[in-house]
Every structure is written in C-alpha cells, then in structure tokens.
C-alpha cells in the first residue's frame, strides 16, 4: 500500500497527572516525549528488515491501567464537581498487577516473536524494551538470560514516555553508537494499557 511509512509515537503526560500525594505513585513515573521512525520497503532476497511481529490484547486487565474519565458512556462525559472531588480523570494504575503481567507476558511474546523469526535469543544483538519500569526490564533480562550489553534502558533519563519510549530508546541507542548496521538484529518488546503487549524482530541492512 505504501513504500515509505512514518511511524510516530508522542505523549504529553505532564498536563494530566495528579501531582498531589494521592497521585504520586503514577505521577513520578511518566514523562513527556515523542519519537518517529521512517521505514522504507525494498525488494530483497536477504533476511532483513522486519523479520517477525507478535501483537496481543486482553480487556480483562483494562482497569489495571486506565483513565476512566471523561467517558462517552456518561452524559455529560465529565461534571465540574468531579474535578474537585473525584480522581478518575487522572490515570490510575495497579502497579503490582501490571508488574505481574509484565513478568509473564514479556518473555512469552519475546519467545513467540523469536520463534516466528526462526531465531534464538542468542541471535539477537540488542533488546530494546518499552521503558515502563526498570525493575520490569531487569526481571525480563534475568528471565531471558541476557547480559547487560544486550539490553538497553533509558527510563532513568526520560521516565515512561509510553508510546514514545521505544522510538526514543532506539534513537538514543543509535546516538550512543550501540546500534550498528550490517545484520544488526534488535528485539523490541512492550506491554501497556489495554492490556496490550507485543514484540518485533528487526534486522538492519
């Protein structure tokens, strides 16, 4: 359908966070950010570019990470008094539940995507996970038996920029000279609201 596609992920969290003591568990994690990646199609017999993708979603856990208001099921969608006495217009998160799901689903989707690509984790040069939580990424690293040099984290600098975190991390890794060309293979994995989780293997030309 198209030969060149621009993928853009951008988030502005700072204007919609509860910065009171009540909302600190969420407010301290999220950051603003934007990232973009341009992909160009090419006819080739080589095993390069996007090698495999896995996508999943389950509404069973939708309430574990969500923004409840404004809601189209309500009329009006939001009332003035709610802004003073209700916190549902701020994002809410059950951190323990999301953590537990991430520990299970990230390794699962990583292995599923690797199998689709016909690769093992040893064939991967770098893993770039969604930058939601450093402890989640460290647990994933341990489960997948990855050495430190094979996983990239920058949540320490930018926070969780959600839809922007993977393209921002990729750009950061490229700027640092970690990502090479010529058959450099990256595994991307992420889990977020919905609940949704996914993986992709990409090999640079």
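^ Assign residues to that structure.
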């Amino acid at each position: 359908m198209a030969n060149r596609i621009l993928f853009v992920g951008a988030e502005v969290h700072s204007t919609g966070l509860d910065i009171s003591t009540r909302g600190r568990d969420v407010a301290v994690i999220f950051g603003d950010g934007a990232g973009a990646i341009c992909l160009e199609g090419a006819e080739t017999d080589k095993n390069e570019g996007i090698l495999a993708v896995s996508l999943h979603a389950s509404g069973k856990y939708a309430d574990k990470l969500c923004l409840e208001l404004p809601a189209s099921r309500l009329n009006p969608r939001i009332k003035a008094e709610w802004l003073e006495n209700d916190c549902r217009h701020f994002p809410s998160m059950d951190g323990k539940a999301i953590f537990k799901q991430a520990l299970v689903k990230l390794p699962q989707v990583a292995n599923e995507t690797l199998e689709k690509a016909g690769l093992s984790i040893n064939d991967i040069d770098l893993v770039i996970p969604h930058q939601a939580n450093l402890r989640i990424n460290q647990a994933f690293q341990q489960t997948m038996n990855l050495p430190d040099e094979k996983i990239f984290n920058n949540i320490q600098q930018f926070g969780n920029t959600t839809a922007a975190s993977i393209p921002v991390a990729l750009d950061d890794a490229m700027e640092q000279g970690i990502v090479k060309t010529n058959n450099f293979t990256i595994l991307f994995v992420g889990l977020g609201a919905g609940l949704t989780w996914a993986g992709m293997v990409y090999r640079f030309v």
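The chain has a mean pLDDT of 91.
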